[in-house]
Amino acid sequence: MKPFTYHCDPIRIVFGAGAISALRAEADFHNIGRLIVLCSKSRVDLARRVSASVADRCAGFCDASAPNMPRAALDRVLDDLKRHNADGFVVIGGGSPIGLAKAAAAATKLPYIAIVTTYSGSEMAARWRVGIADTQVGGDDRAALPATAIYDPELTLDLPAHTSAASGMNAMAHAVESLYGPDTNPVVQAMAEEAVRRLATSLPRVVDDPRDLAARTDALYGAWLAANFRAEVGLEHAIAQRVRQWFGLDHAHVHAVTTPYAVAFNAAAAPDAMERIRRALGVADAARGLYDLNVRLGLPTGLKDLGMHEADIGKAVEVVGAVKVTHPRPVGKADLTEVIRQAFFGQPPRF
């Protein structure tokens, strides 16, 4: 085994069915006595229900969360925290509210508790962003991380099957890129391979029966494993993040679409990673296995199915090409054009 460095961020994890019952104890642990609850407009009722144990400490609810974390939403959160003299907060939801919470925590240094209801894994990454496309600002700050993340699979039972599938494949993207990132290591590889296996076996069960608690538990655990380590930005994330921002596409669905093509492009340069993906999926080809999993889950396979236009391919190549990408196989403009073109049309990947 080669020498390696592994860093684990100090986030308390409470996981399992009924884990939401630990909310008050976690607030006590972090000395949060006056808080606001952050959520999206569609999840206010859920937020009120799951935060009932700290209702006496709750100064208000902020439903500012919106896709792509607009600056106006962050300003509203910061204003609410100041106006209510909060010494911490609770966020409930998936990538958008948690992304907003990270930006707020980075700005205020206040502790917060993340109650996770999707599979995006945003809560485990110190990187935060606000805004879209060329107006985006962000940073990488450990203060952006939650003090505690609560994973209660019972809170995911009402997440629609299609949304669950896309969110789960977003988690899959984190896992597979972590296998061949330049900063990978044996600890990460073990977690990532198990994440691929858990997600691949549980997501079809979730789609078939969204109320299957055992499947939901496996999917949430797989998503947490996948989120534990984020490789430096690779081809898949560079494409998915820039394309969805520039063309207004759904975040999770873009990750689901682009992952098989990025894996196919890197396959020859990362044989060990491909073997782990094949083994975890139980397939002969890693990229085709991920593509077929999208099909099994009923997800779109092409960016054209998400609203992107063929005329946008050139602009997509331009904006993605401006991102520094680190992965096993160097990518030139012609390579990038081919990857995005294949991802646009959505046929099985071939390189």
Write the layout of secondary structure elements.
Blueprint: E1 12-15, H1 23-29, E2 35-40, H2 44-50, E3 58-65, H3 71-83, E4 88-93, H4 95-108, E5 112-116, E6 127-130, E7 137-140, E8 148-151, H5 161-180, H6 186-208, H7 213-227, H8 235-247, H9 251-266, H10 271-281, H11 286-296, H12 313-321, H13 333-345
Parallel strand pairs: 1-8, 2-3, 2-4, 4-5, 5-8
Antiparallel strand pairs: 6-7
Helix pairs in contact: 3-4, 5-6, 5-7, 5-9, 6-7, 6-10, 8-9, 9-11, 9-13, 10-11, 12-13
What does this structure look like?
- The protein has 351 residues and is of the alpha/beta class.
- It has two domains: 145 residues, Rossmann fold, CATH 3.40.50.1970; 185 residues, Dehydroquinate synthase-like, alpha domain (Up-down Bundle), CATH 1.20.1090.
- The protein has 13 helices and eight strands.
- Strand 4, helix 4 and strand 5 form a beta-alpha-beta unit.
- Helix 5 runs parallel beside helix 9.
- The protein is globular, with a radius of gyration of 19 Å.
- The model has no long low-confidence stretch (mean pLDDT 93).
